[in-house]
Specification:
The protein is of the alpha/beta class. Helices cover 47% and strands 16% of the residues. The chain folds into two domains: 164 residues, Isopropylmalate Dehydrogenase, CATH 3.40.718; 151 residues, Isopropylmalate Dehydrogenase. An eleven-stranded mixed β-sheet has the order 3-2-1-4-11-10-5-6-9-7-8, sandwiched between helices.
């Protein structure tokens, strides 16, 4: 049976290597998902020829682009015809079920919040990242939208992260943990202590505190923290994975004997690389807005764009926004 059609808007000009890598990523995503339809947002000379050559692509002309160095909120207000604002407007109007951009992440957050709007009951939308572990992936949030938080925000992050784990990762009963500097309920900052007390009574599947060292072992399915701490954890894990893989590769190529061993282990090593590669998921969703908004790295390649569209389609099919709305009710 053919899957239900999914319509996602894509910022053709988002990212350091746009539009070439975006168009290549969209092409790969369309080939992988016969039910996917893309509304490509950008200048006419970019989006119109591409749409003419692809029957599941609609060109949506936007005459402006928000630069990476522009002030997010100011740019969103002063550039209503920018690709990011137009893309979010497509979601607001119901023409697209989600929007993906590798452009100015602050502008995507501002536009999603101002144009699409927040789900009722959500105080602060949060960015969720999916991290690899030795078992199943873990959802970490917030990873940058809210550097300063109140305890009630963390409770909302927990509910939204749990909905994401169910909708996209297929976890039926997510284990939710609070990131802290100790496992005991009495440990941590005033924020952590208050959040623990609130989450213990309101969040289904709450398993208590978790330390940073436990995240890579899949001790929980959802890990909650403030945006400052979450961003530090995310960048540390990404950098450490890249460094370790680089050192491992250098070691395997350091001698003729090691090169032979590397050839034998190549399939397993490639599988490990794919699991650790951030481009496997491609983008981080901004949870809490009344529509799907996906934020990709500015350095995203075609694989990241394609992966992000796959994840976006999974989120739509899994009813992510409806699940969060229900959780916040």
């Amino acid at each position: 049976m053919t899957a239900a059609p999914i319509s996602l808007a894509v910022d053709a000009m988002g990212g350091d290597y746009a539009p070439a890598v975006v168009l290549e990523g969209v092409t790969a995503a369309l080939a992988a998902d016969a039910s996917l339809r893309v509304l490509l947002v950008g200048p006419s000379d970019v989006v119109t020829p591409f749409a003419a050559a692809n029957d599941r692509v609609e060109a949506v002309v936007a005459g402006d682009v928000i630069g990476m160095d522009e002030h997010p909120a100011n740019a969103v207000r002063s550039k209503p015809d920018s690709t990011i604002v137009v893309g979010c407007r497509l979601v607001k109007e119901g023409r697209a079920q989600g929007f993906l951009s590798a452009g100015n992440s602050g502008a995507v957050m501002a536009a999603a919040t101002l144009v699409i709007g927040r789900i009722k009951g959500v105080s602060r939308p949060a960015i969720a990242a999916v991290l690899p572990t030795t078992t199943t992936p873990v959802v970490l949030l917030d990873v940058g939208a809210n550097t300063d938080c109140k305890a009630e925000y963390l409770v909302q992050f927990a509910l939204m992260g749990s909905a994401y784990a169910r909708s996209v990762l297929g976890v039926p009963s997510p284990r939710v943990a609070l990131l802290n500097n100790g496992e005991e309920p009495t440990k941590g900052s005033l924020l952590a202590l208050e959040a623990h007390g609130l989450m213990a009574g309101t969040v289904e599947g709450f398993v208590g505190n978790i330390e940073g060292r436990d995240i890579p072992f899949g001790t929980a399915d959802v890990v909650v923290t403030d945006g400052f701490t979450g961003n530090v954890v995310l960048k540390l894990m990404e950098g450490l994975s890249k460094a370790l893989l680089g050192q491992f590769k250098a070691a395997m190529l350091s001698s003729p004997v090691n090169k032979v061993a590397a050839a034998v282990l190549r399939p397993s090593l490639e599988s490990l690389r794919d699991r650790l590669d951030p481009e496997t998921h491609g983008a981080a969703p901004l949870l809490g807005v009344n529509g799907l908004a996906l934020i990709a790295h500015g350095t995203s390649g075609p694989r990241a764009i394609s992966s992000a569209l796959r994840v976006g389609a999974q989120a739509v099919r899994g009813g992510l926004v409806a699940r969060i709305t229900e959780a916040m009710g």
